[in-house]
Amino acid sequence: MSDTHEPSQNNQPRRKRSGCLIFVGGFLVFTLIMAGLGGLLEYQGKGELARADELWLKGEKDEATGIYIQELEYVEEADEPEVYKRIITHRHDSGDVESATEHFIKAIEGNINVRFARNDLRRMLADTRRAFEDHKARELAEKQAEERRQAEMLAMQEQLQAEEKSRQKEESQALVQANLDAYLAVLKAADVSVVRQVEVKLSGDIWMATLTVDNLWHMKLYQVRLQDAQSLWETWARIASPDNPDSAHIVIVDLRGNKVGGSRVLAGSLIWVQE
User: Fold this and answer.
1) Is the same domain home to 214 and 107?
2) pLDDT digits (tens, 9 = 90+) for 79-90
3) Backbone angles phi, psi at 192, to 5 degrees
4) Could you tell me the CATH number of the domain that includes residue 100?
């Protein structure tokens, strides 16, 4: 007797569960690491901001301003007006008007209420705010104009599609009427009195003619009715679909609308009549 044992099937789900637990555990560890890293960065940022405050008070404003700009995301909301004021004032006084304007705009976008005692900075803030608002107004106007243009284009496309659909419908109706008139003229010329009424419909590429016959039709022998139906179909196919006769179908109904013959679904030429 062999001592070799087959692995138990019960171990497989256990291994799957173990793999799932490892994955979940790994994900949780990763999340905790990232959360801890975010907290560490915030702690370091706040430490740098405290150092920048010390440098500013010592008069080392250039280095302090660089730290403020680098650590702006960690500035407390209550401290934002003063920090932006320091950045803008120092960059303006250092001749870096572009950086000062950039931070004016950031303060305006963040709805940060920065107040200046100096008239030149007040004017610059007012001018920047006015230019910013003008720019936003132009952007909004351009967006609205583009939306109107798109709406007009869409409306025009829908109108053209509706007009094309209407034109095709009119052409289809005119062609249906023309084929019906031609068929009725041939029946009249051939003195086919057994057909009381003809209705024509175009469905896709199928030309369907529904022929209502009177009671005289039912008195004819089966073979005669079959030949008559074939002749009615051939006449209709020559008028409605000469290039593809099987696309021309007929339906023969009695005075009560009951089907008594016509084309089969597969092809118009496959004619049947009730026995």
Assistant:
1) no
2) 999 999 999 999
3) -85, 90
4) 1.25.40
